[in-house]
Structures are given as structure tokens and as C-alpha cells.
Design a protein that fits this description.
It is a single chain. This protein has a single domain, classed as Alpha Horseshoe (Serine Threonine Protein Phosphatase 5, Tetratricopeptide repeat). The protein is 68% helix and 2% strand. It contains 8 helices and 2 strands. A two-stranded antiparallel sheet has the order 1-2. Helix 2 (38-53) packs across helix 3 (62-76) and helix 6 runs parallel beside helix 8 (190-205). It comes from Agrococcus pavilionensis RW1. This is DhaL domain-containing protein.
């Protein structure tokens, strides 16, 4: 199996639905250690994406869909999530290039580019209690999964979920949570959790 533009569109639609369903949960996580707006901001952004998807041609490439997500999130989502996820999707679209379909190696390139974009934009590393703590294990798991794209997506999703849980005992070193010091311990990073949500939707769409 390969991932074409139609799959990419279905993935984005699934993300929008899941963000809408879980926005209160994401906002509650952010209320504990951030600005209490992560779920609402992401929901607004992905609902805006849904409103623009129909403007794409039926034969739109994965890159075209990813680029639409990027530009829409950057223009509609406030806080840190807009620039970070916007950069992730933009870099992912650049890695996808002009391919009509993504096989497993191309998927790894796309995920790696998304992660690297977040790292460059947010200046965070693994262990800083950010979404990077979900993205990096996801990239590593997909890279190790071989040439089966379904297996790569499933591995990435599982690793991202584990990475999100693993942020709970960490002290934050980046973002609003970093001002809390030890008080952030015991709380899951909302960006890592939304990363796990996004990658779970990708795996479930295959």
C-alpha cells in the first residue's frame, strides 16, 4: 500500500474530527501547564482546514494537501501550536515533493522533516517536555518498521502515544510550562498528546 493524495485528505479529515472530539481534553492538559487554549486553537485551525479542502483538485498530491494544512494552521491558530504545527506540515509537504504517492521510505522522510521543522522552530530537544518527545520516537519507530507503510504508521502512532505519556514525569524546559519548574511534573504535555492524536489518526486511516 502507498499513501496518495486521497489518503492524505482522509487523514486530515480524521484529525479534524478527533481534535473536535477531544478538544476539551487537550485544553484541560494545557490548563494545567500552559495557556488553556491548545484544544480550542487546534480545533479552530482544523475546522478551517476542512473548509478549504474542497477547493483542492481531486488529484491533489500529498504535498498539496499538507501545504494547505500548513498555510491554514499558520494563519488561523494562535499560541505556539499554529507556528509549530504549521511549520511541521510545511516541511512535510516539502519532503513529499511532487510524489503522487508515499511509500514507507518517503513516509519516514515526511515524518522526519515535520519533526525537524518543529525542532528548528521551537528550539526544543527530546526531554524538554514538548511535542518533540512524541515526534522523535515516532520518527525512530517508523524508520525501524521496514517497507510496510501500514506497519510504519502503526509503529509511529504507538511510539508517539508512549512518548506523550512519558512527558508526565518530566520538568519542562521550553514553553509556558518551563516557568512552572517542578510544578509541571505529573502533567502530560498537551502538544505531545495532540501529536499522538494526529499520528493515531494517520494509522487508523490506512
Amino acid at each position: 500500500m502507498t499513501l496518495d493524495g486521497a489518503w492524505t485528505r482522509r487523514w486530515v479529515e480524521a484529525v479534524a474530527a478527533e481534535v473536535s472530539r477531544r478538544k476539551a481534553e487537550l485544553t484541560a492538559l494545557d490548563r494545567a501547564i500552559g495557556d488553556a487554549d491548545h484544544g480550542e486553537n487546534l480545533d479552530r485551525g482544523f475546522q478551517a482546514v476542512l473548509g478549504k479542502l474542497d477547493a483542492l483538485d481531486d488529484g491533489a498530491t500529498p504535498a498539496a494537501v499538507l501545504r494547505l494544512v500548513a498555510t491554514t494552521l499558520i494563519s488561523t491558530v494562535g499560541g505556539a501550536a499554529g507556528p509549530l504545527y504549521g511549520t511541521a506540515f510545511l516541511k512535510a509537504s516539502m519532503a513529499a515533493g511532487d510524489r503522487d504517492e508515499l511509500d514507507a521510505p518517503a513516509l519516514v522522510e515526511v515524518l522526519t522533516a515535520a519533526r525537524d521543522g518543529i525542532v528548528a522552530r521551537g528550539k526544543a530537544e527530546s526531554g524538554d517536555k514538548t511535542m518533540v518527545d512524541a515526534w522523535t520516537p515516532a520518527v525512530e519507530a517508523a524508520s525501524a518498521a521496514g517497507d510496510d507503510v501500514r506497519a510504519a504508521l502503526a509503529a509511529a502512532a504507538a511510539a508517539a502515544a508512549e512518548g506523550a505519556v512519558a512527558t508526565e514525569p518530566l520538568v519542562a524546559h521550553k514553553g509556558r510550562a518551563s516557568y512552572l519548574g517542578e510544578r509541571a511534573v505529573g502533567h502530560r504535555d498537551p502538544g505531545a498528546e495532540s501529536t499522538a492524536l494526529i499520528l493515531a489518526a494517520a494509522a487508523e486511516t490506512t
